[in-house]
LysR family transcriptional regulator (Paracoccus haeundaensis), 303 residues
Amino acid sequence: MDWDDLRIFLAVARAESLSGAGRRLAMDASTVGRRIARLEASVGAALFLKTPGGYQLTAEGSRLMAPAEAAERAATAAAEAVSGDAGLSGQLRIGAPDGCANYLLPQVARDLCAAHPGLEIQIVALPRVVNLTRREADMAIAVSPPDTGRLMVQRLVDYHLHLAGHDDYLSRHPPLDRLEDLHGHRMISYIPDMIFDRELDYLSATGVEAAQISSNSVAVQMQAVRAGAGLGIVHDFAIPFAPGVRRVLTGRIALKRSFWLIRHADDRASRRLTLLAEAVAQGIRTEVARLEGQLSAAPDGRT
């Protein structure tokens, strides 16, 4: 049994499909299937059970996971030892909530790729927590620290959110002096049953029970605010990307949240991923400070 066979086995186990594994491996799904069949023939046991939900590990396949992941770590360590200090290269996949993915990670990726031309960065923006156990990403950004799994968790940075509206909308609607005034305004927020983390329940801070316009994406919410569709609680670091949008009731509604960097515990020995994690962490801190710094302190209702 060689490492290439185990590499394909791990990809199928994590993607739970031949096509998903093929995309990750840059390999045709039919080729992945043939390689798995060959591996099963060589070990004399079925490693996967094909179900309507995808490829599920059999008992024999589950037993193979630990040694296969150990071989993966050894192969990674060997590659890093050969590359030495030649620079960071290869693929890095980062999973993140779409606020971070839209407004912070593009600049971080730009700077990292400029510093390391051999690096390829993939940004996975998902309206849920990225599953590192299934290797959906090499590392993930989250708005809450996980309490389960074999994971390394690092607090990155605090960030701030405020109620905001576009000048066009604000000029056409009654002034905002008190929280009670919000009841005469159209609100924009998350779809309630699609809030995947309690830290994303922003609307409760306003005292308004329901939003007239909602989305599972904070980027879509910001675009609705920018279009003059209503008021929404938005990231301060996103406001510089939306000309005409300004904060309101800043002395009455001000939220603080944190970003957390999460890695799989098995990656602790990877010098490459450790260096990349440090660079991503510093990049996010720098961008939050830069963008929030563009919002000057001003009287309540203005930025």
About this structure: The longest strand covers residues 151-166. The domain at 86-303 is CATH 3.40.190.290 (D-Maltodextrin-Binding Protein; domain 2).
